[in-house]
Amino acid sequence: MNEIILLKLGEVVLKGLNRRSFEDKLLSNIRRRLQHCGGFHIYSKQSTIYVEPQREDCDLEGAYAACRQVFGIIAATRARSCPKDKDAIFHCAKHYLDRELRAAKTFKVETKRADKQFPMNSMEISQYVGGLLHEEYPHLKVDVHKPELCVHVEVREKAAYVHGPSQPGAGGLPIGMGGTAVSLLSGGIDSPVSSYMIAKRGVQLELVHFFSPPYTSQQALDKVKELAKELVPWCGRMTLHIVPFTEIQEAIRRDCPEEYFTLIMRRFMMRLAERVARRTGAKALVTGESLGQVASQTMDALAVSDAVCSLPVLRPVIGMDKQEIVLISRKIGTFDTSILPFEDCCTVFTPRHPRTHPVLEDVVGFESALDIEGLTQRAVDGIERVTINL
What we know:
By secondary structure, this protein is α/β, with parallel strands linked by helices. It has two domains: 3-168, VC0802-like, CATH 3.30.2130.30; 180-388, 3-Layer(aba) Sandwich (Rossmann fold), CATH 3.40.50. The chain is built from 14 helices and 15 strands. Strands 1, 2, 3, 4, 5, 6, 7, 8 and 9 form a nine-stranded mixed beta sheet that branches. Strands 14-13-10-11-12-15 form a six-stranded mixed beta sheet.
C-alpha cells in the first residue's frame, strides 16, 4: 500500500457550527501549498486530513515539510496504509518501521480504533501487534511510560495506518479565516516575527515597507523582499506595498524638532499603512513593537502613534523580550536575513535624545508646520506593489 501523510487538526476541532468553513479553508490552503509537489488527493475525515499521492513522481518529502508550515495543523506524520486485518497491521509495522525498530531499545504500540466495527478493541490490537513485534525483535523491551519508539496504529473507516511518532505542525488557524491586516515590515528582527504571529491566528497579510532612497539602498529593499519571501511558506502569497518615504523624512528633518523626528515619522507610517488598509479591505494594522525596547515604544509614544489611526493596531510581540523574539525568528527562518547590515528608514535621521514621554498636543502642534495631506497623498500615489510568492 502507498505511503501517505496524516495531518491532525488543532483549534479547528473546537469550532461549533462554523467548523466546516474552517476545514474547507484549511483544505484549500493545503492544496494551494502542495501545487508544486505533484498530484495529491487531499480530504478530511474524523478530524484528520489525508494527503495521498496520486503518482509515483510526487515529492512526498517536500509535501510533508510544506504541510507542517500550514497554519491549522497541529501535528503531521508520514504513514503506511494497509488492510484492516491484525496480521496485515503487524506486517506493515514490521516492514515500514524496520529501521526504527532495530535501532530502538524500548518500544510500545499505541492504537486508536476510529472504526468501531473492527472486531478488536484498541488494547487488544496493541497487545497483539506488540507481542509479534517483540518476538520479531527480541532485543526490544516494552516500556509503556517512556519508550524510545512508539508504534502508532490507527484503524479508520477506509484502511488501517501505521506510523512512528508525529512531528509538530504550525498550529494556529487557517490563513484567511481571521480577516486581512496590513503589517509594517521594516527589515529588522521584530516585524517578520509579528507578521508570522498574527498570520498564525488566521489573518491574511498585506505588507508595507517604507523606502527612503538615497538614504536607504537598493540592497536594503532587496533584503525586505527576501524577508517577505521567507514568510510566504508560513503566511501564503502576499503583496508588498513599497511606499516612497524620502520626501516625508526630509520635511520632518527640516521643519520639526529633532527629539520628535521618530514620533512624527511613526505617525506618518501609521497614516500611510491605514491608507493601504482602506484600499485593500484590511481591518487592522500590525507592527513589531515591543514595549520599552526603544524610545518610540514607550506607552506614551505608542499612544501618540495610534492617535492618527481609526483601525485597531495589533502588536503580537508587545510583551516579549528580544531573546524571545530572536528564538521565533530563528525558528521561522528570517533571522539571518534580518541581521544583514543594511539601514532601513527607521534608522535615518535618528535623534540623539528622542522624546520618550511625548504629549499628544505638542506633537500635533509640531506637525502643523508640515503639509500632512499633501505629503501623505504623494507617498500614496508613488506606492509600488510587488506580489511575493514561492
